[in-house]
Amino acid sequence: MNLPICNFDAKNSLLCPQCEKKVEEGQLTKADVDASIKLAQIAKTNSEVDKFTLHSCKEFDGNFVLSFSKEDIMAIRQSRTLYRLIQDQFQGKIWLVEAEENDRKFIEDMFFPTKILSINNVWAPGGIQKTKAIVSGKWTPRFPINTETVVQIVKDARNLDIEIEFENKRR
Ligand SMILES: [Zn+2]
Hints:
By secondary structure, the protein is an alpha/beta fold. It has seven helices and six strands; from the N terminus they run H-H-H-E-E-H-H-E-H-E-E-H-E. The chain is globular. The N and C termini lie far apart (46 Å). Zinc ion is lined by residues 5-6, 9, 15-16, 18-19. Residues 5-6, 9, 15-16, 18-19 line the site of zinc ion. It comes from Candidatus Nitrosomaritimum aestuariumsis.
């Protein structure tokens, strides 16, 4: 398992001086530390999670954006049990994103499994550049993803202003 903090620290819920220093210097956040410890607890009884690589965890208002390696994301998406196991450890909603991805992929991950039809840069009045994402289908009250939360997370995590539109605007 690869985590933002040492495996030993994560398994024992403590921080060695090096990791402590990284937290103090802002290289690591409390969310990175907490998520590492949570995953290490799951890994104790789950050999699949024990092979995961967590790059980071960012918390935005009770939303946890977990950045994993591509193979790990695929494994979690294929297993409801695995997803539940991880989600249950967190107090808020978890969002799975691939590590080192671009803005476009990040937005696609936020909406998974709903498809994003297009992501384009548009110019808003006043010369402000915005990114418009068109989501397939139409919005219904049952749509499982809170689009306002997505807008906020994309702004905080990627410093990107996005506008979300549904393919079929008529309700
Ligand atoms: Zn350490």
